[in-house]
Amino acid sequence: MKSIPNARPWFPKKMREEIIQDIDYVMSSGKLMLGKFSDLIEEQYSNITSTKYSVSVTSATAGLQIALKYINIAGGEVLVPAASFITDVSSIQMEGGIPVLVDINPDTLTFDLEDLNKKVTKRTRAIIWVHLTGYIGKEYQRIQSFAKDHGLFLIEDAAHAHGAKIDGNVAGSLGDVGIFSFYPTKVVTAGTGGILTTNDLALASFARDIRLFGTNQNTGEVFLQGSDWFLDEFRSSVGYRQTRYLFENLNRRREIAQIYLERLEGSVEFKCLDIAKANFPSWFQFPVFCHPEINADSLRRTLINKGVECKQIYPPIHKEQLFRSLSHEGLENSEQTLEQSICLPMYVDLTNLEVDIVVERLFEARDQQ
Ligand SMILES: Cc1ncc(COP(=O)(O)O)c(C=O)c1O
After folding, report:
1. In the chain, what are the domains?
2. Which of 42, 73, 162, 189 is within CB 3.0–4.6 Å of 68 for a Cys-Cys bond?
3. Distance 155 CA to ligand 1 centre (A)
4. If you count DSSP H runs as helices and E runs as strands, how many of each does the chain have, helices first?
5. Could you tell me if the CB of 134 is within 6 A of ligand 1?
6. Of 40, 42, 68, 39, nearest to 197 (Cα)?
7. Residue 10 in contact with ligand 1 by CB distance below 6 A
8. Separation of 193 CA from ligand 1 center, angstroms?
9. Which of 78, 80, 85, 314 to mutate to test the pocket of ligand 1 (most atoms within 8 A of CB)?
């Protein structure tokens, strides 16, 4: 029996044909970096997020490092959710900063505001705010105000959240800088890659200089310790075409999410994210949260054995070997939420019939617990 995958990149035939033409153009133009396609993809993200500047880079992780370098984070503390991706934390350490893990609100997957208040200190300089699974928590304005009131630089990790919106506000425009990922599983992929979005001209110029070995783009002088963090034209062209289809991509994800939500409505065992009218997640993932009495780990294994690929969102950061020495005081909601999470298959080519099969198998797996 062929399993239903958990995620799959989407390259419909028309897009593939366009990409082949673009790649041919890149090869014959002889310009493999910082050319037509890096300009185009940057323009796209400024348009999507209504921010003035976009800077394409090799990955979201590089973007996080660039943002942290920009504020010279070494020695400063950064508030980051325990329910986040490893490089949200390792990028802080790589730049000499001190990550401080904050708990999440299990209903909105964003910061627990009380814990955020508890963990801010005189040494705090920045916040990395993650729209986990592509969902923007309804507390977004309170997080923005918190950052403003404490004079903190707000880095929005929108790696999961291409095109996600709340009350008309788009992911990537809610902080001082937004960072997107084009990693293979993401809503938009270029193989790998990333992009920064910002209204801060100084940050955009810093990013442009540092992504090219720290070379001042006006004088040609090397004045910063940088790296080759620019996104080459091949990947920029793939990311550009993928992004041209973003709204089609999101529409299908939303249809699939709607079917899951209807099928799971009223379930005591499996709770879904609460979707307010003006909240439009990107549905990078479709997570359900198992009742605490369910052994989610065993249920995930049963579901996989039944031909449905699934996973927990992420392990809590402090359970990773690398981060076990970080303080993990008061992170119970992050632990419980992530450990009880199951990401069901979500990708554009998933059929309605397959969605029904997934839900049927999920209930069968529950009955076998
Ligand atoms: C929330 C989040 N942030 C950042 C990253 C890092 O992205 P990249 O692989 O583009 O460096 C990932 C995963 O890929 C992620 O899931």
Report:
1. 13-244 (3.40.640.10), 246-367 (3.90.1150.10)
2. 73
3. 13
4. 12, 13
5. no
6. 42
7. no
8. 10
9. 85
0.90 cut: is pTM over it? Answer: yes
Distance CA 218, CA 324 (A): 44
Residue 30 corresponds to which tokens in the numbers above? 């002889």
* Residue of 183, 284, 341 with the most ligand 1 atoms within 8 Å of its CB, for mutation: 183
Residue-wise DSSP of 231-274 = PBHHHHHHHHHHHHTHHHHHHHHHHHHHHHHHHHTT-SSEEE--
Q: How many residues does the chain have?
A: 369
The number of the ligand 1 atom at minimal distance from the alpha carbon of 181 is 10
Residues linked to residue 222 through DSSP beta bridges, in sequence order: 215
CA-nearest residue, atom 9 of ligand 1: 183
Q: Find how far residue 256's CA is from the centre of its chain.
A: 19
| β-strands 286-290, 270-272 pairing | antiparallel
Q: Does residue 140 have its Cβ closer than 6 Å to ligand 1?
A: no
pLDDT by 10s per residue, the chain, length 369: 799 999 999 999 999 999 999 999 999 999 999 999 999 999 999 999 999 999 999 999 999 999 999 999 999 999 999 999 999 999 999 999 999 999 999 999 999 999 999 999 999 999 999 999 999 999 999 999 999 999 999 999 999 999 999 999 999 999 999 999 999 999 999 999 999 999 999 999 999 999 999 999 999 999 999 999 999 999 999 999 999 999 999 999 999 999 999 999 999 999 999 988 899 999 999 999 999 999 999 999 999 999 999 999 999 999 999 999 999 999 999 999 999 999 999 999 999 999 999 999 999 999 998
Task: Kindly state if the Cβ of 173 falls inside 6 Å of ligand 1.
Answer: no
